[in-house]
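Folding Problem: From Residues to Backbone Shape
Fields: amino acid sequence; protein backbone structure tokens
RECORD BEGINS BELOW THIS LINE
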Amino acid sequence: MQNLPNPDILVSALTLQESVLSSRIEGRLATISDAVRDDPETETMKNDIVEIINYHNAMLYGQQDLVDRDYYFSKNFICNLHAILMKNNVRGTHKAPGRFKIEQNYIRNDELGNFTPLPAVLTDEYIENLIEYMNDHREPSPLLQAAVIHSQFEMIHPFEDGNGRVGRLIIPLYLYST
């Protein structure tokens, strides 16, 4: 990327593509073209586009914040990512954006089975442990470490809503930091 005249153009396009693909996992149907045009025909499509834009903005914030703080992860960083993802009346926006859960949350899935994440009372302790691991670059494989980070984040499930979005966002940001 150092040889490109303007690498931000490529990074921005890739970030937008990542935003769309992450939103697809959540069942969103908007495409890159929809997000770029930003002329939704339905309220559902409008909400899909807002989620894509939020993800894109959170990715850009995350990249810049990591650079500004010498690639150091923190609880505040993760909470800020969550707050950005939950802006503008998207799903879960009323569920304490940027703040860790204070009550037990559950994941119900009739096909794959239900899941009960870590109790709220342990969230802070386990997030601290995860942050320490994220900032420890002694693992031989950053890709393997990113997978462990993602898995641990999803097991903790620190927010009332939006954990999947934050968890997927952490993967490329972690890899960016290595």
Q: What stands out?
A: Residues 101 and 160 are 5 Å apart (CA to CA).
